[in-house]
Hints:
The complex is a heterodimer. By secondary structure, chain A is mostly helical. Chain A has two helices and no strands. Chain A is elongated, with a radius of gyration of 18 Å. Residues about 1-5 of chain B have low confidence and may be disordered. Chain B is elongated and about 110 Å long. A seven-stranded mixed beta sheet of chain B has the order 15-27-26-25-16-23-24, sandwiched between helices. Chain B has a six-stranded antiparallel beta sheet with strand order 7-6-8-14-9-12, with no helix packed on it.
Amino acid sequence: MTNLLLLIPAALALGLLGLGAFLWSLRTNQYDDLDGEAERILHEDPL
Amino acid sequence: MSAAVMGAEELRLAASEAGDGTMTLRLAVPGMNCGGCVAKIESAARAVPGVETARANLTRKTLTATWRGSRDRGADIARALEDAGFDAFALDSGEGEASEGAERRDLVRRMAVAGFASANVMLLSVSVWAGAGEATRDLLHWVSALIAIPAVAYAGRPFFVSALRGLRARRLNMDAPISLAVILATGVSLAEVMRGGEEAYFDAAVMLLFLLLVGRWLDRTMRDRARSAAQALGRMAPRGAWVLDGQGARAYRHMTDIRPGDRVALDPGARLPVDGVVEAGRGTVDAALVTGEARPVMVVPGDALDAGILSLDAALTVRATRVGEDTTLAEIARLCAAAEDRKSSLARLADRAAAIYAPVVHLLALATFAGWMIAGADAREALLVAVAVLIVTCPCALGLAAPMAQAVASGALFRRGIMLKDGAALERLATVDHAVFDKTGVLTRGEPVVTDALALTDGALRHAAGLAAYGTHPLARALAAHAAARGIAPAAVTDVREEAGAGLSGLSGGRSLRLGSAAHCDAEERENGEETACWYAEDGSPPVRLTFADTLRDDAAATVRALSDAGVAVSLLSGDGAGPVARVAALTGIADAQGGLRPADKIARVEEFQARGGTVLMVGDGINDAPALAAAAVSMAPSSGSDIGRTASDLVFTGASLGAVVEAWRIARRTRSVILQNFALAAGYNAVAIPVAALGHAGPLVAAIAMSSSSLLVTLNALRLNRGGAA
């Protein structure tokens, strides 16, 4: 039982972390141009 | 068309200004196809002085650039892109696009929350099913409830809202049983947990929402992508024109600000936005998109012109006679809208399924509840079983069946250069039994090519091509392309002058060259009803007559044959004269051909075919085709066509091949069979699951397994559409 009290919050916290990361990446437009980003990595950054 | 044609004024109007003086311009760059293009386009745009940021989006084929200061910078950017080899068109930085994106993003957020909740609740549920002791079970249930209830409230909102909207309109849509199942399951589970019961359906409720949100998001994404691609192509129409005032000064005015009686200046290469009468100037105009006539037409003062006509080499002053709602163009738009209205009776497969499905599910759940009460169970037990029935029958697989298949098919089409505007159009395309083609620009290329290749010697062609390179007239471009195809490099030509309505002249190696009309080259024109011709003259040799014709697309005949072989009737309806129509019909093997049709005639013919019970596919590109495109059950337009034609059609294909029509038709047929298989799978699953659930044997575990496995099966089946290449 005490294990659970520790593990469940830990599992939820990790899950929430993942959810937060996803929502953050969504908000910062990282899914706007999936094809372009895949190609961009092959080129020198012009900046 | 190029940025230069589109005009700097369009670009000026399209740029949007932020509060701090930063200008933002979105450009559609249809030629952006690879990673290398991205780098080239961005560096070309950044090289323009003053540009602060330039970001290309390969998925949407757009470039967003920002700068400070003058609006005119937009035209510089478009020109820089054109120099780099990419045509660019202004996109409205309007709110329509932004709100669409926001809506889809909202769906993704809800989907993410539902996914998170369903994963975590499922983990907890697995522990319960593994046989957790009573106290542990209650704890796990409470934690599940704490995760599930806010998640259901947030992620379920789109369904609840839509179900309520449906109810208010006295209709049961697919969202009604979904909402009922989710809310009842959550509520009953909460009641169970409060009294320390064994069974809770939190996992089922959130998983249901997650899977359905996936389906809805797929549907949305597919439609948005196709629409933004189609929109990018649709921006080529003029949104304004140069208007001359009494003193002859020019001012650029938006369409809505032009009044009848205004004098509009039409430059070579521009489209006329209003109906009008030529006041001054003469030259050739291209009416192909308006009337279907392939040959350029000579106009002189006094001639009436329809909106949408393209000036080839004429600088005309046109007095506007009808503007806005009164133009021929607007009349055609009204015909389109009326035809769309008549078409709305063609419901989507999924909606038809939902219309039967929702009441049946509700009745089943109610019957189960009543049955258990009659059999002597208490209300709590009967309610639990009824909830199990609702969850098990909930249309996860059904909700995914159509969008999943259509999304995969739309992706497959997109890779072949075919843009699908609406998934439902695929369903209609699959059942087509009559294909109707337009002639100019559809069966033919819509642009002239040199027909008598040997009229000019290589040496003469070298000079003629050098002169033609300076022209914007389609015939000059065709001649330049002809030289390039024969591998002849154009000669250097100096002192080039272009005389509107006449032709080009220049000097090369001390000799004067002329290219253009017969009069321009001092020749005697031999009039021939079906040929398009121009003349070329050099000092010291007699003028040469060059003939051009609008040739067939390479695979026009093969496309017609493939369709007829598959049992699809093929017709040709054109606005062009009977002669050219008969020739094209003979070359492509179409028996049923008609020429000289006006837009209203085309729509009448299409509706006549459909009244006989046919499902018509209309392939057309012109303004004159638009009403027929809207009236046909399903329609396709080449991306080179008029924007009103593209707007009216369900699919738009890029590229020179007419084979896209057959390919789209084949993919549509496969998609339809996959959707029907998916419905059969979902129905078969329900046939097994409903009795089990109604008899009270479907606990939360069974419900969860059944739901996820059926959804997975449907998804995998849809993914099969990606395989098997073009066939």
